[in-house]
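Deliverable D4.2, example record:
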Amino acid sequence: MTEEVQLSQLYRISPAWQDFYAGGLGGVAGILTGQPLDTIRIRIQQRNSQPGTIWSYCRATVQREGLTSLFKGAAYPVTTIAVQSAVVFQTYGLSCRYLANRSGTPADQPVSLSKVYLAGMVAGTVQTAIITPVDLLKIRMQVQHAVPGSSNYVGSLKQLRNVLAMEGVTGLYRGLGVTLIRDIPSHGVYFGIYEWTREYLEPGSRMRGSENPWALFAAGGLAGVLSWFSVYPLDVIKSRLQADPRSESPYRGWIHCAKESYREEGGVVFWRGLTATLSRAFIVNAALFAVYEYSLNMMRRA
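Output generated by the structure prediction step:
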């Protein structure tokens, strides 16, 4: 074995860490493209929100609070998304390889879609520990109507201090139960739809890697849309539950939140903000998977 080959093997990134790094880069790309629509969807989902379209909410928000208001709460996901997304993709990759080995799947065959679904559910379970406090802090930032930079505006660090002072560390995990119920099945759908769609659009890409960026874009966007749609009512409940401190919230828990929301507004309440959410989901996940696969291919060829 030549010295060059020995060195290339020494510095080669393992598959698990390839998933980690590529997932982190993909997550950052997703957040940067989708934050304004995320702010709009959170506001539409809340109690006492007025009827309106994405554009009417966007226009009113910018006129009242300035353009930067669309990025309220972005600091939390931006500073954590690399780790969160990296953990999701690393867990997914490890789970797929484990299930493939357990079932004796040949090395030249892709893992079955049923195992992809199971691996996605494992990834959704693991990432909940990260996403729950991040989502809670982000939502608290997004629902305030103070202009960023004004004296009564609560910034990122102050928001965190307020939650810890009023509710303790456990306050950061308000909504953990409904987040788990949302994220476990939705991540199975997410990865399953993605793998099926990319293979349909570009046969053989699950084994050799994708060479068609449009196939990745479409597969990632469709996966994001269908995974969100499959659990959307749970997201509305979660957003409402996390918007207020426990002492000020009208809801005792997520089941009480669901019952009260239905009693006050009917079944339509569980689909509030769906258009904004699905629009954002396509953009974010198309960017995420495109960057993820590109990064993965680059590391595999190194």
